[in-house]
Amino acid sequence: MAKSIDVKDLDIYYGDFLAVQGVNVHIKARSVTAFIGPSGCGKSTVLRSLNRMHEVIPGARVEGKVVVDGQSLYGAGVDPVAVRRQIGMVFQRPNPFPTMSIYENVLAGNRLNARKMKKSEADTIVEKSLRGANLWNEVKDRLSKPGMGLSGGQQQRLCIARAIAVEPEVLLMDEPCSALDPISTSAVEDLIHELKSDYTIVIVTHNMQQAARVSDDTGFFNLKAVGEPGHLVEFNPTTKVFSNPEEPATEAYISGRFG
Ligand SMILES: Nc1ncnc2c1ncn2[C@@H]1O[C@H](COP(=O)(O)OP(=O)(O)O)[C@@H](O)[C@H]1O
Ligand SMILES: [Mg+2]
Q1: Could you tell me the domains of the chain?
Q2: CA–CA separation, 117 vs 103, rounded Å?
């Protein structure tokens, strides 16, 4: 199920503004890849380009290629909605649907399919996804209660359950713990660790300890100067990035000299 991703000579624009330039990276299947770097260097922009989510922003466009297991995401005839089903996304702020129960929140993505589901099938998906997100035991007796009634950390795991309910191949996470307390953060980090046996995970994080804890590979993004496009400075195994980085700019960033 999990798939590798190859990014080739990727440039990303917002209108005339070149936000990110020349990204080349190979993301391994069944691994966790972290993107780190100072604010505004294009981490979220690159992440969104990996499932064509940026296309919902007027004027945003890419040049170059994103290839998922040999298939070009931006090829002619590729349906962006199908891409987003295959490559799920979890956002910075937990965003359960406010009017929906916990149960219906998990199924929200599946409900977009035209096909009607039997109750038994829906029950199975809900339980499997909530178990997958390490949330089942906490919510199994209140599935019909609003998703908004959960704590922030539980809401974020509910959003992860919703993302995995459609059985994607890749999970993209944009600072998924930045709105969470340390205990919830630790629960989500444990979950990321478990999910990587089935999924290819790319996580943007501001927290370098988190990148070091959860990821196999790390990409460091930076700006050459204000107003210049962001670019990928270094991509290496996480242990190397944090112990013996290749680039002086990476060293300066991870040792806290800027950013
Ligand atoms: N929706 C948008 N419209 C126009 N410019 C944007 C948009 N989102 C991000 N940008 C610009 O693209 C650059 C990269 O932003 P972003 O990807 O959000 O960086 P990061 O996630 O690393 O903080 C910034 O200069 C930012 O202002
Ligand atoms: Mg961002």
Answers
A1: 5-254 (3.40.50.300)
A2: 14
